């Protein structure tokens, strides 16, 4: 399928819109125009029968006066949409500043470097549909225990124009692909579901390296192995988190608390702690929007600020927060290029990009051998944190008992719980096997979803609360 | 209330264009929305977001093969483009005889009480006043409330239109508003956040004092809390907490999930049929009712234009049936229950609930607490995909108060709760009389406080 003509937005109209937005004395105004096309191919019951195309085009205009923000959005990129949004936004935020100041925009380079080799939206429908069919066939070939296979491929191309009254004009194109497989396996009335995905800001070339067959087979085998799962232990125990997607533990447990809106509202355990020790000395955490082609990366954020690599915790010491323009200004910090939004319908918030735990020196094999008992976590289903108390929880989608320094039976129904400070303080071994996640992460905050990445080596937390239905290695069960 | 006929005409035109482009059957679904969201703190406005937005999707069938395209460009060329794109996708899609569009059914003309004209008269000052009152009510509840974290009021007026080539032409206008408050409680080094919200079709449903009180109570409850030792005990769930479990259960009661093997209620080759089987204690009555007057999820018809209705799911612990849209009903050899729900105009009508009601009991929550000798009273949980409609596992993080000899005792935090969902249902001892509506992703839930015996609490 071809995409429509790339929409153009006349810079003179953008300048006029911003001037209009400031016409009642606003101090700052910006505009976010978005044109997004998402095509989805879904297969279930062996039928490729969910083909969908969504086209969203719209613009949002923000006007700031003191601590008050007016925001309005409208469908389309037409003159009427832009100007009506500007007027609606300024109606809320009226100020005493000089009105009618002209705005002169200067295009900032977005250095369009790492671009997909084979942009998905230019491929035929059949070529993209084949990815879904190949993954489905491989998953079903894993054996008769496979009861259902759902596969989905989606490709998105988002064109943005971002401009602000301080003169920034940024344009960019972002492309994201994702292939997802979910397999339900069943044996003797026990049913388990396994889900995996592979994606990134790439084109279809990604699936030359990571084949749909491999994804389908691995997902099916994962679901089948979970049929032998024993109830998860309950209690406090050492937890090893394997490399790659396991980094989402730190995204939740720590990363959210470093977002500047929580700092400004004093709703984070990390507020006022810059320069203090917040983790074991072996822990270094970085937010990195510059990893080529990875899911959480970008050249400019949704406020026109260049994507950056931001050290957060270095050698256990808290060194930085993640800011958008509003909260950088409020806190007197530099903008770290973390202003992100779900769509033109939303105001930006400080958000993570790719959250990275830097590698250490242990080998993953040694870390396991050195752990007499506990839980070995391969995949987490996502998590949630209360940044104010620092308490977080995760569901474990693939995990194994550790028995005598070796992997034991898979476990079902486990959760991990802890608090931000404890988990960072209790990291007592970090592996040398750093890996990025396979490109599947989405993060929700205040109802806004954005794509994120994580990366980490295999590491061990000396003690976490594991929730399950069986008694734990420490034997705590009932009574007391 | 007046229905904007021009949006019905837009849909009819899209259907006609899709037919002209080669569709055998076509359906247009449109949403047109006016919305305002207000954030404030400490009596001062922080931000106001306003918009008028609309979008339409067209679903076409060619020989049972489906294509769907959506967009916001509703002028003549935009409509033509959508129709053509949908036809193009359908031509690449596999045929499936279960893909059908509904025939027209009369939509009952009862007043569903989903439109409140007074909502549009609410001024910005009125909204700021509601937000400020909710914050004050929180501060008045407990001296440990330190700050408001987020105060948000949202309101929307929305027209929904469904037109299809089989004669369905349905349109409705509804209003909705909600107020949510998150506050921070502090004592010593401990800080906790508490959240509460109310939702309804008009400002009358929003009592800022109730929101402030509930948010404050949920914030202060876990202050100074510690994990309990790992044990099995009786657990009392507040309505907001049990709502998550009910939604997980509803996912498993989706006729689509059942027929496609993605539900714990999927028929096993060697097992008895699920409907008619006992899946919970006699205290458990679960009903889905998309036509319940005044309930927050109520609409006269679903996302494919099928009239909404009451569907019993569990009665006195016995499973009665499943939720269906037209497609899952066709696969299961039954009829739609009016549960084809669209998350937005962009998507297909998926099987989902609109208003799920766990029938309340007769006693107040305090009586439930008094009946527990040793246990946990849960005021908030963190669910992170630990409610699994396929395996039936329930596993969440929780905080609240310990119950000792029928009274609330010391605060508890950092524990986990885990049990198979069906075991939880079987162990429901009593449901409180305090029915309230809880909003969240995956449908509105109406429930009271629930007492469940023999739940595994994971702690120290």
Give a verbal description of the structure.
The complex is a heterodimer of chains A (480) and B (460). Chain A has 480 residues and is of the alpha+beta class. Chain A has two domains: 11-226, 2-Layer Sandwich (PmbA/TldD fold); 231-471, no CATH class. Chain A has helices spanning 11-21, 79-92, 125-140, 206-209, 212-226, 248-253, 260-264, 325-331, 364-369, 420-425; strands at residues 28-44, 47-65, 68-75, 106-107, 146-164, 168-187, 190-200, 230-231, 233-241, 285-288, 309-314, 317-318, 339-340, 349-350, 354-357, 373-386, 391-403, 406-412, 414-419, 427-430, 435-436, 441-445, 448-456, 459-467, 470-471. In chain A, a hairpin with a 3-residue loop joins strand 5 and strand 6 (168-187). In chain A, helix 1 (11-21) runs parallel beside helix 2 and helix 3 (125-140) runs parallel beside helix 5. The termini of chain A are far apart. Mean pLDDT of chain A is 90; it is low at 1-5 and 471-480. Chain B is of the alpha+beta class. Among the domains of chain B are: 118-157 and 172-220, 2-Layer Sandwich (PmbA/TldD fold), CATH 3.30.2290.10; 231-458, no CATH class. In chain B, the strands form four sheets. In chain B, strands 3-2-1-4-5-6 form a six-stranded antiparallel sheet. In chain B, strands 10-9-8-13-19-18 form a six-stranded mixed sheet, covered by helices on one side. In chain B, strands 7-14-15-16-20 form a five-stranded mixed β-barrel. The termini of chain B are far apart. The mean pLDDT of chain B is 94. Strand 3 (68-75) of chain A pairs parallel with strand 2 (44-62) of chain B, so a sheet runs across the interface.
